[in-house]
Amino acid sequence: MDKGYEKERFEKLGIKTSVAKKFRKFCRKMSCSQSMGLLLMIDFFEEHGISPKESLGPNMQTLESKIKKRINAVIAIMRDVEKTQTKPTVAMLQSLFEVDEPKKKPLILEKKYAGDKQKEPKFREKKSTNDKP
């Protein structure tokens, strides 16, 4: 039984036999009673504000093209955000977390001379002649 319509009585509708067979087949496919199937159809047309007499061809195509345009606009916005915000932020974070070993600087005291030849120091300590033991 149809929920909410149990106490209502049935009415007869005058429809052609071929249409009745097609309608019954549709209701079986939708797994609902004939009353509920007809009610669903009427509610659908009223809710969407369309008429069964009009063709949905051009209306559906324009709707589809509008949706595609909006999707393309959203994709363009996402790419722009990725390019201007996400990638630079990721690069900054990666540079912060990279751990490079600091370059080993030689001490000031250690001087490397070119070749094996040792150079004379620039200053020498004077040997004092006054020191007599």
UniProtKB/TrEMBL annotation:
Cross-referenced InterPro entries: BfmA-like_N
Highest taxon in the source lineage: Bacteria
Annotated region (Disordered), positions in chain: 109-133
Protein name, UniProt field: Neuroendocrine-specific golgi protein P55 (NESP55)
Source organism (scientific name): Sinomicrobium oceani
